[in-house]
Design brief:
single chain, alpha/beta, UDP-n-acetylglucosamine1-carboxyvinyl-transferase, Chain, four-stranded mixed beta sheet, 23 strands, globular, binds shikimate-3-phosphate
Length: about 425
């Protein structure tokens, strides 16, 4: 579907972003592991997280969904069984990388995973390595790609140093650790999103953080309290950046999750001089808070200056780096992102797709091995951008169009449904005020 986004007048009004995708995936999985029914409110009803509910059904969980309220009657920690059915992860990388952690601990059972064409290009070797060290066997296509099969076993606890900061790999090992004999420790090179740790610790799972080391103990039964999912800062980032870039805009973005491991985009915006005001959680080193903090963010248009994002900050802003590239086009000076090779393994190769996409719209942006460099001050002329089936690229094109001089056509806008159903309606509403 091609959708045109014309240069916009001021964006005004209030908006509640969709529920957090990362937390919704995790809520569904722990709901399936529980032995008593669990109610999840404000569950994200988008393609990715509906794939997770479907996967939980395949494993024997009863799932009742009424809009954004989901009731899961799980199967307990040790009895999921797909009865030979393939688990279809659709487009959801987080589902594909987290769920094998739980299933690797199912002694004597095997689980086959597959997904769409884009998922078949996304590697699973990073989870296969620690799971093998714990005793499980993973058979993947060409050694590293879906479709793949997880052969479960009685796992043993390990200490695993993540070669690259990844919340998905960390979470996979922690889920496996709950079924392993002895404790399991994950060592992070730099901090990444900690929703799994917060959720497990709130549910009473023995879990400690000591500096960059997170240790989880064995769990026989999971008692899950009801879970409320806060708004997704990664989705909110699209209207926030639109508000910052479109002249005369003033927005209130409500109910946003401001967990410090997710708010790198707000730090970047602050350094660039953008007007985005609201409470934020301060960095929490050495503790695992049980709760997810929420805040309202007040956003206004204003001038920007360039900034640099270094490797250490990358995991805190990983999904918003396409927007940093767009912001860089409007900032005074040179905006640089370094240490972000991980972008190559997202829903598209986001170094290539962002750089080529924005360049086609008139941006002065160059790819590097581990990020990109943007010469600011050009703004966005306009043109056509291809979403490559990547939800964040589709929405990047839309925001670029609103802030452009001539308008942007996004080819494949339907990709936005993966994380932000109703994105187009939200934009239209902010334009009508
Ligand atoms: C996610 C972690 C990140 C992120 C992805 C969601 C998660 O991936 O890009 O959109 O929910 O754990 P990596 O952990 O692979 O960087």
């Amino acid at each position: 579907m091609d959708v045109r986004f014309d240069p916009s007048g001021p964006l005004k009004g209030r908006l509640t972003p969709p529920a957090d995708k990362s937390i919704s995936h995790r809520a569904a999985m722990v709901g399936a592991m529980a032995s008593e029914p669990v109610v999840v409110t404000n569950y994200l009803a988008a393609e990715d997280t509906l794939s997770t509910l479907e996967a939980m059904r395949t494993l024997g969980t009863i799932v009742q969904r009424d809009g954004d309220r989901v009731v899961l009657r799980g199967v307990g920690m040790r009895t999921p069984d797909a009865h030979g059915e393939t688990i279809d992860v659709g487009n959801a990388g987080t589902l594909m990388r987290l769920l094998p952690g739980w299933l690797a601990g199912q002694d004597g059972r095997s689980f086959r995973f597959d997904g769409d064409a884009s998922i078949r290009r996304r590697p699973v070797d990073r989870i296969a390595e620690p799971l093998r060290l714990m005793g499980a066997n993973i058979e993947a296509t060409d050694g590293r790609l879906p479709p793949f099969t997880v052969h479960g076993t009685q796992l043993r606890g390990i200490t695993y140093e993540l070669p690259v900061a990844s919340a998905q790999v960390k979470s996979c090992v922690l889920l496996a650790g709950m079924l392993a004999d002895g404790g399991t420790t994950v060592v992070e090179p730099v901090a990444s999103r900690d929703h799994t740790e917060r959720l497990l610790s709130r549910l009473g799972v023995p879990l400690w953080r000591d500096g960059d080391r997170i240790t989880v103990g064995h769990v026989d039964e999971l008692t899950v309290e009801d879970i409320h999912v806060p708004g997704d800062v990664s989705s909110a980032a699209f209207p926030i950046v639109a508000g910052v870039l479109v002249r005369g805009s003033r927005l209130l973005i409500e109910g946003v999750n401001v967990n410090w491991t997710r708010t790198g985009i707000l730090d970047v915006l602050q350094r660039m001089g953008a007007v985005v005001v609201g409470e934020r959680e301060r960095r929490q080193d050495g503790v695992v808070p049980g709760e997810e903090p929420v805040a309202d963010l007040d956003v206004a248009h204003g001038p920007l200056k360039a900034t640099t994002v270094e490797a250490e900050e990358v995991p805190l802003v990983i999904d918003e780096l396409p927007l940093v590239a767009l912001l860089g086009c409007f900032a005074e000076g040179e905006t640089v992102v370094r240490g972000a090779e991980e972008l190559k393994h997202k829903e598209s190769d986001r170094i290539a797709t962002v750089v080529n996409g924005l360049r086609g719209l008139g941006a002065e942006i160059e790819a590097t091995d581990d990020g990109f460099v943007v010469q600011g001050g050009t703004g966005i002329r306009g043109g056509t951008i291809e979403a490559h089936g990547d939800h964040r690229l589709a929405m990047l094109g839309a925001v670029a169009g609103l802030a452009s001089r001539e308008g942007v056509t996004v080819v494949g806008m339907e990709a936005a449904e993966v994380s932000y159903p109703g994105f187009g309606d939200h934009v239209a509403r902010l334009q009508r005020r």
